[in-house]
Amino acid sequence: MVAKIQTHRLFNLPLIKMAVRDAILKLSLRKQIKNPVMFTVYIASFFTTGLFIQAFFWRGDASASFIFAVAIWLWLTVLFANFAEAIAEGRGKAQASTLRKSRREIQAKKLAAPSRDAKITLVSAMRLRVGDIVLVEAGDLIPSDGDAIEGIASVNESAITGESAPVIRESGGDRCAVTGGTQVTSDWLIVRVTANPGETFLDHMITLIEGTKRKKTPNELALTILLASLTIIFLLVCATLLPFSTYSTAATGLGKVVTVTVLIALFVCLAPTTIGGLLSAIGIAGMDRMIQANVIAMSSRAIESAGDVNVLILDKTGTVTLGNRQATEFIPAEGVSIETLADAAQLASLADETPEGRSIVVLAKENYKLRGREIKNLGATFIPFTAQTRMSGANLPGRQIRKGAAQAIETYVHQMGGDVSPSVKKSVEMISRQGGTALVVAEDAKVLGVIYLKDVIKGGIRARFAQLRQMGIKTIMVTGDNPLTAAAIAAEAGVDDFLANATPEDKLALIRKLQAQGYLVAMAGDGTNDAPALAQADVALAMNTGTQTAKEAGNLIDLDSNPTKLIEIVEIGKQLLMTRGALTTFSLANGIAEYFAILPAAFSGTYPALNSLNIMRLATPESAILSAVIFNALIIVILIPLALHGVSYRRVSAAILLRTNVFIYGLGGLIVPFFGIKLIDLIIHGLGFG
Amino acid sequence: MTENGTLQIVLYLVIVLALVKPLGWYMAQIYQGTFRPPLLRNLENLTYRICGISPDSEMNWKSYLITMLFFNLIGVIAVYLLQRLQVSLPLNPQTFPNVAPDLAFNTASSFATNTNWQAYAGESTLSYFSQMLGLTVQNFLSAATGICLLLALIRSFVRCETTGLGNFWVDMVRTVYYLFIPLAFVFSLFLVSQGVIQNFKSYEKVNLVQSIHYHDAKQVKELREQIIPMGPVASQIAIKQLGTNGGGFFKANAAHPFENPNALTNFLEMLAILLIPAAFCYTFGLMVGEVRQGRVILIAMLIIFVPLLFVTVTSEQAGNPSLTALHVSPSPIGSLYPGGNMEGKETRFGIVNSAIWASATTASSNGSVNAMHDSFIPIGGLAPLWLMQLGKPVFGGVGSGLSSMLIFVILTVFVAGLMVGRTPEYLGKKIEPFEMKMASFIVLVMPLVVLTMTAAAVVLEAGKSALGNPGAHGFSEILYAFTSLTNNNGSAFAGLNANTPFYNILGGIAMLIGRYWIAIPTLAIAGSLAKKKCIPSGVGTLPTNNLLFIILLISVVVIVGALTFLPALALGPIVEQLMLWNHYGS
């Protein structure tokens, strides 16, 4: 997995070096204008630099050294914000360059017709268009995204998924999708290209990871609007202080009119620079966390919606239960010992490579210490399952062992002259009532007993669903099973609701119904028949192993193809929003302390009585203003790790989350700057400045 | 604080709160159409028939807005013309001349916007005709306009996926017929019974009990007579208090004995100030289907209001340190000596009732006064000033106050919603960029106008020359004036000669912006919310009906108010108070 290649450490030296360089490059007007809050700081930096030059060569409104210090720290404020963004992007850039390597020039074997015997022309992959047919053989890199239309091959998809074990791709069915940049390791495929150059999955992934085309999400936009209007208010507050000060000095005849430098300093402190400077880093980091989880978000909007989801629609198989039914119990017929049954069942399954068969072998081995034997050594022949007999088994010298559905075995033993006892029939009935599958085992004419095959609920899933309920998310299990079976599994897994006998149309109808009720629905899917439902769902997680259609319909793609990941995605979405909220609160609450630092400093010359507001007892007006500006700049750097990691998320109700975050970030935002500014003031004063 | 003072505050708040439920319930019924008083119902139907209004037709936000603006424009023009032509119109026993254009514009804007700022003295400027047909009518209509706006906003939370926000005419007619006319009628009759006048007589000349001697040039003159203004006062005072209008019949407003003769009328008039704004919280709860949502808002309002009320009462009772330094006792002695700061206060009402009135009238954008706020101790005047600067979410004007609070709720929900990791929603409606854009705009407009106009006034000679006091106090006077105007409050700090073309025109503009530039985005939000789906709530939803939300809402209101106005306040009342303390000791 690409994301796993890169280091999980937040900071490392090359990354920091690159981020520092990028932070400086980002000083261009074109980049700065995108962030309204920081843009005002940027302008303010230019302005104070101008004031410094004026003070240095001619007469300034304050001492040149003071203006110089303010100007430097304003530039640093801008740079720190740039640095935060650069470091968030830097992590993606490293990954993107790895990916780019697999997009190198590939020669494609373009076919004139969809047949192996058709004429082959070698063309560059960059010239393939949708609908072109190409041949890929062992050792070839697949030139573009497409659907296999003929053949079967094993494909190494580690370039995309990081998983080195090859996967099977074959024409028809749900495993026909191939991804450009992956490598065929054996056999061959004829592929119909489904993406134009520059629009392939790999291209998409690279742009996403680099964050170059990242658009602001609705929520980010709303926050930007709020922050921008607060910035305008503060700009106004500071600008009007100049006439207010002019009036006041004229009235008292004391002190000087407040300097523009001080007003700019006050403005930058008040403006929500903390959140403004970190906002884009938070968004990029959110995308990055998704990539860490091995999920590719086709839009950053999808991540945000994930936080809002209130219904999860989960396929039973693979999500709620392990992929296949497993043997969990042997129920012998009367007069048969359980060991005999287990032994026979194991013998019948030794050569059975289906997951059910393997689970029978394992159950017998674990519970009855029956070791797997080599079928050749026993002189046995394996009787495979056929649609006609609906049984499988083994013929040993003198013994014919069969296992199969109750009806098939019944027919079989009747032919042999035996019968199925009522107790066995009862067991079979009991098992199907509980949502399981019964396999009956017979040796010659004698029925030995029943194997209980059961859907096995994934470990820990019940607790997971309980947590989701706490978070206010409802889970609905969808299955093709009958309602009885579905209900039994639903109860065992602890899902809130289920849809049994479900067809893809039912699934789509369910999503529509829920959405009409105002719910935001998330689902996972992989098959082509899932595509309509995926397209309808608000958050649609497509499996990477799934079909191209499913992948196109989804807005998130899980490279690990693990549907349970929906839960993780919801959490990442929530964490992203929470980080924004927490830092906004923190940033706004900071303003109060900054007033207490700057107002007395700016106006105590005119009104000495205002010195009473200097509750932090800052040494001099200059050191007070400088301390506030420095604090305001440093807090951005200090909060970069938080912006990148996201605030800690716990699976608890909204009420509890809110209480915790208000306490930490709201109250913290009020109190922290008082100490921070005082500390900086002590240092500045101690060093003999100000 | 004195025992008597505490008792009066408690009594006042208890009675206001006791009336919240019955009146709130009644309002919910009339607006939802579930109960309409019998006789008035016929009148309502008749009105629709005459005016050709089909009461069932719904308006979308744009047509609701245009109807409202058009209706208000007619109000502005009518009041303007009445003043400009009053000489030629009836009921002008004192033959007052036509009002000057700038003052007429200011007054027309003032009464159409529910501000009721008075740059004029009623008893020496306006005819009875202008007062009754112009001002009193606007007292009803401008207040009802505020309620219409709120109703549209409330409906936008309740309704799902629709464009209809109700019908402006229906909301207007029901408010006036079912709410204002019955309440105002009963209240004005009661006021008459207590001595508030109601007549069309010409002003009366009475002989003074004791003649007054004064120096004019080098002569000593004797004054034996006084002219007592008359007029249809009670009918205007009742609605002035109930509709958070505040524009008095007389210059002295509720400090005048003909407007507010005794302690009982004073108490009831104070009650009328907060009555409807407080009750609307309950109406809101009923209309959105969860009473707790309304209760939460009412509690948040009280938590901001009560401490600020206490600040004013205690600082006024503590008295003026400069007088205390001259051995004037600040503490009351017996029942005849009130102590404290009695400057600018009516002896009939005393310190506590002046302070309650000052707080209620500024919180609720009523603006009537029974004491001169200019004479309050700086910190005691700061509380009313800041209550206005919050942007009227604390009770506020009828309708417009709760609307403003709901905008703050949207802001709070946005920030808090992010903190629980969900796109914010309130009452099942998602708060998205459009709502934030409009809400930000609303929050931005008021400080923008207040600060820039104050800045203009303190720099320009036209602004400074009107000041009654120099220095920080003068600054407070100007700041107070523009705060009051832009927030459509109308209370005056006094001390500022506001009847100059500069203040009349600038002030008129401030009032119009303060009202309509907030009404437009508010209705736009309503239009956008109504179109949205209604999302069912769950445990993942941010709860907006608990104590934590109250705290957050208060914090947002207070922090926005503080961050915006702290520097200006520091150069006005805060520094004034600090200087007083530094000089005399606190």
For the largest interface, the chains and their residue counts are: A-B, 80 and 69 residues
Strand content of chain A: 15-25%
Largest sheet, strands/sense/barrel of chain B: 2 strands, antiparallel
Q: Taking Cα atoms only, what radius of gyration of chain A do you get, to the nearest Å?
A: 34 Å
Taking pLDDT < 50 over at least 5 consecutive residues as the criterion, the unreliable ranges of chain A are 1-8
Would you tell me the overall average pLDDT of chain B? 92
Which parts of chain B are unreliable, with pLDDT below 50 for 5 consecutive residues or more? Answer: none
**Widest sheet: strand ordering of chain B:** 1-2
- Apparent shape of chain B: globular
Q: Give the oligomer, counting copies of the same chain as homo and different chains as hetero.
A: heterodimer
**Cα-based radius of gyration of chain B, to the nearest Å:** 24 Å
SS-derived structural category of chain B: mainly alpha
Approximate helicity band of chain B: 55-70%
Could you give the order of the helices and strands of chain B? Answer: HHHHHHHEEHHHHHHHEEHHHHH
Number of strands of chain B: 4
State the total count of DSSP E strands of chain A. 20
